[in-house]
Design a protein that fits this description.
The chain is of the alpha+beta class and about 220 residues long. The chain is built from five helices and ten strands, in the order E-H-H-E-E-H-E-E-E-E-H-E-E-E-H. The protein starts with a strand and ends in an 18-residue tail after the last helix. GO terms for molecular function: isopentenyl-diphosphate delta-isomerase activity; metal ion binding.
Length: about 220
Amino acid sequence: MIRLKTVGAFMNRVLVRCYSKSVLVLENLDPLQEASLEERCITVNEKDHAIGNATKRECHQVGKNGQLILHRAFSVFIFNSKGDLLLQRRSPQKITFPDCYTNACCSHPLYDLEAEREERGALGVRKAAQRRLQHELGIPPQEATPESFHYLTRIHYQAGNRGQWGEHEIDYIMILHRDVTLSPNMNEEVALRVSHSSLMSSDRMKPRSGDWAVTINFL
């Protein structure tokens, strides 16, 4: 498992997280996004052993002591047959890091869904990824089957100690390499594709105030 705070070379590849836009107040939350805060995440220890559950609100709202609950999450990177990378711009309605660019899907396996608590072969996380890709991007389940994801590694990271919301996750990094059908859910994101080569060489990907803000999940 990679710990971001201890791997300097890895951190050099991580761009700016959009802290300033993550400071929201409860009464301004989008109704659909606020309802999702009652879904229950799988809480874990630093070895990624499941130890309980907590709502998304409890997991992502910074406590009075400045701490955040460690929980299980995943990030999916999708490349098509040409090698183009699928990016999404998070909806302005998102609670954490709205309007930020990131990889195809970042979400959580849910405690209340028994299939997503399956530990063997990261099967629960794979099933959660299949569910969220359909919800967020309209990708048919048969185009993102659990076995089609290549599990790369896990990352332990924390971000967002400024403001009301943040992240503290054991994040499963998964790759899906195939052409997919897209029908984005506009309450979640807007999707676009860019070539890997143009992305890595683009001046727009250099951190600049108010320009191209990306999440820490985006490597």
